[in-house]
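Look over this entry.
=====
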Amino acid sequence: MSVVFHKKPTSVIHTSASKPSSPMNAMLIVKPIIVLLCLALGIFLLLNWQSILQGLDKNPIRAYALTHQTRFTTDADIRGALTKEPALKGYFGQDIQEVKQKLLNIPWVKEVTARKMYPDRLSITLLEHTPVAIWNSHSLLSEQGVVFSLPKDRFNSRGLPILFGPDEQGKVVLEAWTKIKRDLETRQLGLRSVSMDNRGAWIILLDNGVELRLGRGDWLPKIDRFVTIFPEIDIPEGKMLTYVDLRYEYGAAVGFINK
């Protein structure tokens, strides 16, 4: 007689302790940490990038190359400007705007273009002011009406127009010179200098040494009045005409000096 045993089906109960950890659950924890580390690294680099790059500089900038020949500026001028404080840094640490400002401090330099060349050089382009007139006896005036100075041994100013006036009116006085000179030439008169005072009053000096005091306003009718009365001026013996004051509505006042 045989006995048959029937095995009962068994059931397995899964608990949280018995489950293996899911890769997805681990990523949920690790991913925010990675993001925070990347963010911290980015902030650190943002705040310290300049110091980090400066650390890569082995030498300060110590040479330069001019892109073209200059008329007034010498190597000594450029080196003198670049060696002023603050001292030049290396390729990564040097602010190029600082270099430009140093060169713009040279009185006759108009514009500067500069760029860094690895590892320790500068490429420099200088544009200089062009003198077109003598200004207030001791300075020069550019064609843009900018007042500047030059060492006397680098430029011969002989033959330039002689102008006087407030520095901020340089362009106005230069334009007046051109117009007055043209007006005088049509009347067979030559011009030596033009002057404007702080009130905007004009005085011109003719090439014959006579000063015309024109005052403010339109000078052309006053010049015409001078041309009309000049032949009629009776100059005393031993005297010479020094000025004609045309600021009056009619006529003029004259002045004489001894010869």
